[in-house]
Design a protein that fits this description.
alpha+beta, four-stranded antiparallel beta sheet, flat
Length: 120
């Protein structure tokens, strides 16, 4: 099974968006370990919302786009990892290891819908 781990960071914490060389090195070792063990499919960090946009389509209306930053959001997605795990419990255990890399973070764990999961 595949699971998406999305980590959320405080948008206002500048240190969250400027990782130290030590953090980058620690993350690099962690990523390589998970690749070697067949856990990690891909992982990326993202820029703060000030460099992003939000695209919205509502029923009966057109598509609209809004440039960031998104002041109503305190915590925003700071990055993600797509992993392999045998079940949700294992994915949560991996998420705990992932979260342990950070000083303060929230990691959301979501199972990926596979084609065979779809009806029909």
């Amino acid at each position: 099974m595949r699971f998406l781990l999305m980590h959320r960071l405080d948008e206002r914490a500048s240190e969250a968006w400027n990782p130290s060389p030590e953090f980058v090195e620690r993350m690099g070792r962690f990523v390589q370990d998970w690749i070697d063990r067949g856990i990690l499919i891909t992982a990326e960090g993202v820029h703060p919302s000030e460099k992003g946009a939000r695209v919205r389509k509502e029923r009966g209306s057109g598509v609209s786009a809004t440039d960031g930053p998104f002041t109503e959001a305190k915590e925003v997605i700071g990055g993600f990892a797509l992993i392999n795990a045998t079940d949700r419990a294992e994915a949560v255990a991996y998420a705990a290891q992932y979260a342990d890399l950070f000083d303060q973070v929230e990691v959301e764990v979501r199972q990926v819908v596979e084609f065979e999961d779809l009806p029909g």
